[in-house]
Design a protein that fits this description.
Blueprint: H1 2-7, E1 14-18, H2 23-34, E2 38-45, H3 52-65, E3 69-74, H4 84-102, E4 107-109, H5 114-126, H6 131-134, E5 140-143, E6 146-149, H7 157-167, H8 183-198, H9 202-230, E7 232-234, E8 238-242, H10 243-247, H11 251-266, H12 274-283, E9 292-294, E10 297-302, E11 305-310, H13 320-329, H14 340-357
Parallel strand pairs: 1-2, 1-4, 2-3, 4-6
Antiparallel strand pairs: 5-6, 7-8, 8-11, 9-10, 10-11
Helix pairs in contact: 2-7, 5-8, 5-9, 9-11, 11-12
Length: about 350
């Protein structure tokens, strides 16, 4: 596991770890401690099963036994009738991220392993995902400012269970892991049959995802380079770039650049639907293009540049006096020749930032 931290140059003094009580996450937190990391274990009680609190308290007792700081985070309120699996996942990450933000912890470790990678590859293949989706679960990703790491992606679940047996540690079996109502569980049960009939093992699937991830890394590097060289950023939320230059790029690069900028501007956890971004790419140079809204952003052309600004929910007229007063506080924008919509959007961002400091 130390090799993982060296490879990705992660030098944080404190690592938070999501610990459910299952074998994967228990192995994760104990292995982190074994390699000398100061780790804080966080257990989310989703309150979806009667026994969930007892399981969380079992983890608390186990962490105390091993000298590991531990906190239980509870998903309060009513639960959705449909899409429970997705809602629970989002609630879990929201709770973990809020705890990390409140305690100045920048890195969260989670226990995904090789079989999780294989299942994810097949699930995304079934949905018709492209390169980025088929790259699978990334070893390091970000939810806003929070770095999420997965040091066990190369390990099989059997290896993690063997590690716990050697330590004499018992884990909790979540009954939902055997429930065929969940597509991931059905895919998990299909994996042995797939290997038997075709020789396509979870190891082979994980290796394929890793190969695709290298290509993804290259494309992401090209996107980052284009944004650095050609995109102007205004207070981290407004972007502009030359329309003709963007349209002249390969369709994939154009698509990825726009998807990234819309995600960053709109503040959504994911990029917009691919089909919508591709339609935007295709229409940029058409005379009929009058702008659009997408991903919480307003996108329009002005002075041969494409502008991406946060979508204004409340329309108002920005008066000249208000803008000039704003520039007294933020003089770095005084000489910028900005379209009216951009000034209005920037004004809202600047006033929000100023009020946040007061």
């Amino acid at each position: 596991m130390l090799d993982f931290f060296k490879r990705y140059q992660i030098e944080d003094e404190v690592i938070a770890a999501g610990v459910s009580g299952g074998a994967d996450s228990l192995a994760l937190v104990l292995r982190l401690k074994d390699c000398g990391k100061k780790v804080v274990a966080l257990t989310v009680d989703h309150q979806l099963r009667p026994e969930s609190r007892t399981e969380a308290e079992y983890v608390a007792a186990l962490m105390e036994k091993h000298g590991i700081e531990h906190h239980i985070l509870t998903w309060e309120g009513e639960k959705p009738e449909h899409g429970v699996e997705t809602a629970a996942r989002e609630a879990r990450y929201d709770l973990l991220q809020k705890w990390c933000a409140g305690h100045m912890v920048q890195t969260l470790a989670v226990g995904h392993h090789r079989r999780d990678q294989a299942e994810t590859f097949l699930l995304r293949l079934q949905r018709g995902s492209g390169l980025f989706g088929l790259s699978g679960i990334l070893p390091v990703s970000y939810r806003g400012w929070l770095r999420v790491i997965r040091p066990q992606l190369d390990d099989s679940p059997e290896e993690l269970r063997a590690y716990l047996r050697e330590r004499g540690v018992k884990w909790v079996e979540d009954p939902s892991n055997q429930c065929d109502d969940y597509q991931r569980v059905r895919m998990r049960k299909f994996l042995p049959l797939l290997e038997k009939e075709s020789g396509i093992s979870e190891t082979r699937l994980a290796e394929t995802a890793a190969i695709l991830a290298r290509t993804r890394d290259y494309i992401e590097g090209q996107v980052a380079r284009f944004i650095k060289n050609h995109v102007r950023c205004w207070h981290e939320k407004i972007f502009s770039l030359p329309v003709q230059l963007l349209s002249a790029q390969h369709e994939e690069l154009c698509y990825r650049v726009l998807a990234q900028l819309i995600k960053d501007c709109g503040g959504a956890p994911y990029t917009p639907e691919a089909a919508a971004v591709l339609r935007l790419c295709a229409g940029l140079t058409e005379k009929s293009f009058r702008g659009c809204t997408l991903g919480g952003c307003e996108i329009f052309k002005a002075a041969r540049r494409l502008w991406i600004i946060p979508e204004g929910k409340q329309k108002f007229v920005l008066k000249k006096q208000a803008w000039e007063k704003c520039l007294q506080e933020f003089p770095q924008y005084a000489k910028a020749d900005l379209p009216y919509k951009t000034r209005r959007g920037l004004y809202l961002i600047l006033m929000k930032a100023q009020n946040g400091k007061e």
